[in-house]
Amino acid sequence: MDENRPVIAFAEHNGNYSAAYKNLFDWVSRIDPKVYQNKAMVLLATSPGGRGGKGVLEIAINSMPRYGGIVKASLSLPKFADYFDVDMGEIVDEKVKTEVYHAINKLLD
Q: Does an H or E element contain 37, and which?
């Protein structure tokens, strides 16, 4: 995939960004507030629970434009263990897999 079209996958910690992401972002944004340099992007989030990281995903969707991100698509994947086979390293549910592919393909539009 073209490095100018990022896919960012967020872990959700208590409904927000993880401390590691937030710390890195805070330091980088001090150099240039337009961290994402007006690039198209897809945002993903997942969690073991039923909301699928929707809290952090909503925060990211709303904040990315302020930092130069052009959100082309977003996707939340609830109940990660039900849809992802860790041993195989892939999404096992065909409907979810199709949703991910559609989101990624929006980067090409």
A: none
Task: Give the H or E element holding residue 47.
Answer: none
pLDDT tens digits, 83-109: 889 999 999 999 989 999 999 999 887
User: Which tokens in the block code for residue 86?
Assistant: 């860790």
Q: How many CA atoms lie within 13 A of 58 on its CB side?
A: 7
Architecture of the domain whose range is 7-108? 3-Layer(aba) Sandwich (3.40)
Token readout for 36 is 């994402």
The alpha carbon dihedral of 22, 7, 109, 100 has a sign of: negative
Q: Give the separation between CA 69 and CA 1, rounded to whole angstroms.
A: 17
Q: What is the mean pLDDT of residues 44-50?
A: 88
> Would you tell me how many other CB atoms lie within 10 Å of the CB of residue 24?
13
- pTM for the full model? 0.86
Can you give the residue ranges of every domain in the chain? 7-108
- Taking residue 83's Cβ as centre, other Cβ atoms within 10 Å add up to 18
